[in-house]
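ASSEMBLY PREDICTION REQUEST
Request ID: AP-0331
Submitted by: J.K., bench scientist
Number of chains: four
Total residues: 230
Priority: normal
Notes: Please return the full assembly, not individual chains.
Input sequences:
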Amino acid sequence: MNTTATIDLQRASQLLKLLGDPTRLTMMKLLKSHECCVCEFVEIFKMSQPAISQHLRKLRDIELVKEERRGQWIFFSINENHEDYPFIKSILEHLPEQNESIAELEAQGLRVCCQ
Amino acid sequence: MNTTATIDLQRASQLLKLLGDPTRLTMMKLLKSHECCVCEFVEIFKMSQPAISQHLRKLRDIELVKEERRGQWIFFSINENHEDYPFIKSILEHLPEQNESIAELEAQGLRVCCQ
DNA sequence: TGCATATATAAGCATATGATTATATACTGA
DNA sequence: TCAGTATATAATCATATGCTTATATATGCA
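STATUS: Completed
Returned structure:
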């Protein structure tokens, strides 16, 4: 007997493909506990702004993340209302917390970025 | 408090990337309940034998599946002893059973393939 | 209004991926 | 030993992916 809903295989493989990139997977894990803006990710991943922006777009296109503009910045957060969020969540739960990245940002005064 | 072991993010993304292909993901789900040989997969996926073989190789290379020759045939099965099997298992549990494919094979007399 | 900052988008490019076809290898049974 | 079946591997190719650079857009502030 199945108590949890199942996901269509095509759909599941599409989601897994998106998470099958270390940058995007880390982003999702970070976003699960912390809102982040683009420039914070640029700092964390030491990656160019367009590269970060393009990863976030892929996550947003299938609505795994939400974005919200606040002044100059656009903050990203996990979309907990996504139909497949339970699936995503169960995957993220197997991954180590990424609090050091955030702590580092804070130590450098770069958290809540660009303040 | 974490009760379950976590997986390194690099490692996890590598696994997810492999599962992020509909053919391989379906293979894994099938193999979770049924041993299968290459020619059965060829039948199920309506895909060329080399294509199937190459997918299986990728799964075997990181030891997600085991192979065992029995006469002419090589049977594949899930490697439940894989260090990250709990992670894999938790993903597969969200996917719908693929028993129809096996039932179809049996109906066509193609199960335990090539007998 | 004009400049600085944050972000998005477009174009280009090198590499990865997943298929195909052709061929090699391994086992079975006559 | 030879033919048939199952599988693996190699070479090739079209497409996908993820980065780069260049540029556009949006906001805040002097």
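REVIEWER COMMENTS: Helices of chain A lie at 9-19, 22-33, 38-45, 49-61, 85-92, 99-107.
SIGN-OFF: pending second reviewer
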